[in-house]
Amino acid sequence: MKHKVIDNFLDEEYFNSLENLFIDKKNTVNVIMPWFFKKAVANDLVENNIFYMTHTLYELNEPQSEFYENLIPLLKKLDVKCLIRMVANFFPNTHIIHEHPMHADFTFLHSGAILSLNTCDGYTKLKDGIKIDSIANRLLKFDSSEEHCSTTTTNIHARINIVINYIQEQQG
Q: What CATH topology corresponds to 4-24+33-160?
């Protein structure tokens, strides 16, 4: 599967509702989304103090979050036939951009999508070295059973995205 980048993937009103759910843009300290600490990205065993926060929306064949239903329109637009996992990631700002270790989300063939919720200097790098910049409302579709990696950001407080692993019916 060749990767595909789609800018302005969601209509503005729906994208803004997701953005407001995951990001406190007004600094009101009324963050809606609870974030959970992860000590290492992609099973990175190096002691580099690079951590991230995550929120699991769907896993183990069922919703894991009260916010799952807010993402159903996104799944419909992606034409997801079988959802495997959906998580939101929050990569905090670092002094320099750190590339996390290359990894495959699952070893079996499946589709992946990453929706960027904000614009920053972070990116997703595919196994062939192509870098997909994080731009708000940009969707990257790719084979997430192939190696890829994420990064931190240096120019805003955090890089925030939604990762979806799914099966999509093959077109004949």
A: Jelly Rolls (2.60.120)
